[in-house]
Specification:
alpha+beta, Nuclear Transport Factor 2, Chain: A, 29% helix
């Protein structure tokens, strides 16, 4: 994994990434800025763990293909370290079942930037269990 280097990025470079991430969230999952990611980006969420921007693109494509009425609601962006970004969000979507339940998953993402200003690590956390998400298929959010 590319190791983040705190002293090599300018403030402007980090702010540019933050603005691009905000724009990606606003139109998620369409037209994502994959050029923000290092080629070998590490990605992890409660359902997946892998390396590579190509795999990340395929995962976003899967979401776009199977789920409907997707909305990634951004609640806030923080910078806990120079080259780290934390986003807080809620993902809403309609599940691909005959009764079309609306699912909501609150969570946060921890993004690390490498010395080139690319996201080298993207780790998503859910503020609820996978079981709580599964129960929404039958009982709603």
């Amino acid at each position: 994994m590319d190791k983040p280097m705190d002293n090599q990025l300018s403030e402007a470079a980090v702010l540019t990434v933050i603005e691009a991430v905000k724009a990606d969230y606003a139109r998620f999952p369409a037209a994502q800025s994959y050029d923000l990611y290092a080629k070998d980006v590490y990605f992890k969420d409660p359902m997946n763990e892998f390396r590579g921007v190509a795999r990340y693109q395929r995962m976003i494509g899967f979401i776009q293909q199977w789920f409907r009425h997707i909305e990634l609601e951004l609640h806030g962006v923080e910078r806990p370290q120079t080259n780290a970004i934390t986003t807080r969000w809620t993902l809403h979507f309609t599940a691909p079942t005959p009764w079309h339940p609306r699912i909501s998953i609150p969570g946060w993402s921890e993004l690390q930037l490498n010395g080139d200003g690319l996201i080298c690590s993207h780790v998503d956390y859910w503020s609820c269990s996978r079981w709580a998400v599964l129960k929404q298929l039958f009982h709603g959010p």
